[in-house]
Amino acid sequence: MSLKSALRNTVRFTGRALFGGALFLPLHAVAEPVQNSNIPRTITLYAEDSNAPYAFLDGVSPEGIYVRILQEAFDRLPGYRLDIVNVPFRRGMELLKDGKIMGFFPPYARGDRDWIERYSIPILRETVVAICSKDYVQSNDRKRFPDDFKGARFANNAGYRLAGPEFFDMVEAGEITLEEANTTASNLRFLMAGRVDCYVNERMAILAGMRELAVDKAVARLFDEAAIIGHEFGYVAYGPDPEGKWPYRDQFAGALDRALSDMLASGEIDRLVVSYFSY
Questions:
Q1: Residue 56, domain CATH
Q2: Local structure of 80: helix, strand or coil
Q3: DSSP state, 218?
Q4: Which of 25, 38, 198, 276 has the fewest CB atoms found within 10 Å of its own CB?
Q5: Entry pTM
């Protein structure tokens, strides 16, 4: 570990995880009070706990591409230091909507999330796809998603809406069968066991899940990318603050946006993504 990484881990960054609604450390103030203008303000951001390679728990430590990007951004913000708490996606969105946490990453922007008061600048462009068994692909004509997938059995990460509103309308109408699990690995197991025909997620998340499961090439060849559903950007999302807990939120969010913008312009975010996959 480099000196810079060690300093970041011990001085600028701490990580926590929320399991079953209970934190290993107290879930009270999400930002430490500043006693002196020379003391950095601690900003607690919540992150997904099972969205590899983007944001997840590696044992008990937060890890992922977004985590590394935000760690680097905070290195450029001497007035702040970063604390990350990992939670399941659905739980994180509930906490954000209820005004119990200040920020959560990396959800996509959605029109039906009009309660989100502010997003960071777009951080990463992600590609959402459907992968299906070769048997399903060879037996069905799939020119349009989701219309041409009527009758299919899909897996989906609980709380994710990546497949789009038309897809979920078809689920509601009984035209598509949906099974949901909390993690990418669990949904891939459904697919490999033949329990479902297809699975929707971000392309790199699917590849990371296959790597986690140590899926060999022979098994991987049994599945095809059947549809590109769209491209999405991940953000830090900021919810309502009904109790006025975070009066400094917008000042911080603006500072973070400037740091992220500089990193995008300099190619630093691209470098971090390449570096992540080089390990």
A1: 3.40.190.10
A2: strand
A3: H
A4: 38
A5: 0.76
